[in-house]
Amino acid sequence: MLLHAKTIFVAELHANSIGQLPGCHGQLLTGHARHLRTFIVLAVAALLAAACRTDTGSTSGAAGKSVSTAIVRGGEIVASVRSEPRTFNRLTARDTTTDLVSELTQAKLVRINKVTQAVEPWLAESWTLAADRRTYTIRLRPNLAFSDGHPFTADDVVFAFAAVYDEKTGSILADSLKAGGKTLTVSASDPQTVVVTFPFAFAPGVRLLENLPILPRHKLEPALKAGKLADAWGLSTPPSEVVGMGPFVLREYTPGQRLRFERNPRYWRRAPDGGPLPYLDRVTVDVVPDQNAELLRLESGQIDTMSGEVVPESYATMKRAAGEGRVQLLDLGPVLWADSFWFNLKPGAFAGDARAAWLQRDELRRAISMAVDRKAFADAVFLGAGEPVYSFVTPANKEWYWTGTPATPHDPAGAKALLASIGLTDRNSDGLMEDASGQPARFSIVTQKGRPRLERGAAVVRDELKKIGLTVDVALLDANAVIERLVSGR
Fold first, then answer.
1. Which CATH number describes the domain made up of 110-225?
2. 308 falls in which pLDDT band (50, 70, 90)?
């Protein structure tokens, strides 16, 4: 079951000065661009237009007010996230706040331009593909250094791959850096050259390299050799030890409250005028678990950006604030990623459970997709602002969206027939399905608490599935607990 909604950017007009941000990535401002949903709050969007181009001038802002687009150096942006990081080690955690810390403090060999989908050189300056279509020779940018001044060489790249493939580390990034389940072979031919060999000709090629932050060998190699890299860079690590080649360095971490970052004076990227990047001096990230509290902080000016979405029922408030000139609303159309309902397909996840006979069946997933009225979901969850989609890719993705994706019909009767085909029927005429052993057809949906849209969406799915006889329990957990359940397969 998939839906997408329009993206409404909300910008504080009184925010501190901001210029070009690293890569002009939305995720720098919103916490994790890949998780954008219905209404996303983007701080200082009025000035982001200037940050992502080289010209200066002015443009029309909220309530017809003129907003300067001149590039300004210095200042601070105050953002918010819903949960604190699980670790500072991106190899071992996939939560959005850990990812944000990594994006701010680390760098990768290449990056994927989120607008053009093209691969762009980052720490890698260039690369060539050999005649075997498997071997890439990558030339690194010269004279780069980590934030502590230690030189960056090809040995750091080789180390990063060794770390991500290390079985004791158990990196959550390992699978994303394999081709056909096989690891890449990585070596250094000289301090500025890396040779990456794929197990076979692999179409994505160097695109895979965007998945790996290049971590400092001089800081983390002892932990890898000791088999303790999974424990390195935990939350008790002094911020000065968390070094990288990203645009910022971590200066302060107050558990449960905030993270403070300062501009990395050794950051390698340059502005169009040749000056250093980033333009910002500081980034402060406050931990605000409750969505409503986060919105109140935005309205009162305590924060400049929200990592989460504005719930649809709050849109009227934002619209009124825009009319008063306090925020700017920008309608950017559909979001990139649809709301989705994911299933636990981990092999053996339900071993010893009588439900194993049907919980991981294709027929169950198809029945659920047919049972949920997507239009009703959009009206109830997004107050009519959402549109049904039938793929992981939404119309916002101009490169990969396919208009010919078959639409799943809303067909409760057909859904019941599919359930019957896997042994789920109403055996005692109580309106609810039981399996062949007579046990209720019952399972849980896990979602994040404090996110009204997610909570409301889970409730709608629960109620829709009850109409075809499935019993669903909704478990509301904090963000890190959801991630933990996802990673562990529980």
1. 3.90.76.10
2. low
